[in-house]
Protein: Nuclease-related domain protein
Amino acid sequence: MKIYSHSKVTMGGDMVFINPRKKSRELLYYEALKVRSHLSQDELYQYEVVVKGYEGECLYDDLLDESGHNNLLVLRDLYLKVGQSVTQFDSILISDYELKVNEIKNFSGDYKYVNDQLFKGNQTISDDPLHQLGRATGKIKRLVQPDKNRLLVEGKLIYVNDEFYLTSDNDMLWKNIVARGNLKRYFRQVNSVSSSGDRAEKLVEILQNHEVDNPYFNLKADFNRVKKGVYCGQCGSFHLQKDRFHFVCLSCGCKESNETHVLRAICDYQHLFYDDLMTRSKLYDFVDGKVSGKTIWRVLSKFCRIVKNGPSTYYKLNYHDFNEAMAAIDISSKRYKDIINLNN
Structure:
């Protein structure tokens, strides 16, 4: 999948994404915590909810790719501040004269709408997705002023899971819903009547000028709770044997360089202690001294920006997560290669 930069509109080929779909801070937090600690029942439940949501968003992206969207600009997974509140948007399809807000849900099972309230069995869904969609669409209208700009703004609730079943006696409900079986048809229809030129680019600019970081997730792990050290990127085992330039996993045989292990630890630290000041000494303690201070300094200097705070120096990761950082490396120039054991 071709992904364009977050801050720049790039057009060409048959895909026009304005920003990449990235794992949320919440998902990255729980992924790191799951490896380095035992999740409580509440944490495990929330982790599974976040994973399922992300998988649904990725499935939506894949289906959109398969259907084609060369006449659209697509913004994904962003938070917009409108007035004093911040709203999250899963996907926004933008053309010169239309803007489609897509709220993506990866629900499975039997659901029903009764008196404008969503139920799964006899359980009420507290934050009704249609109400979410209405609020999000209203926020967008405040930003782009559709009447003034001759623009159609509408929202659709997208159910991507083919194991989702919904019943309702309210026929008006269905005009706001697209189920998995009709999703490709919906994408093709939107794309076929759209064009994206200067007007669409201006709409993207308006929206991105109101973009902010997620203000709602602020969990931070207890440093004493998490397991220190380095672990295998393939199986998650901390049972490693140190060579001069690598660690070899004694569980699966995977061999990864010191640099790879330190980079993974840097990412874990940033995800688990987001607003903490990351220093060389803290990272050395975090890896339990398994890697030398000199190697830690070299990897920090390569993948992080240095920030001076009075007499102290701390580091901020230049990348969103481990995979993004690894993708930026020229593997051919990497002195010590990682060797993955594909037989496990």
Summary: The CA atoms of residues 190 and 231 lie 46 Å apart. Residues 25-212 form a domain with the Trna Endonuclease; Chain: A, domain 1 fold (CATH 3.40.1350.10).
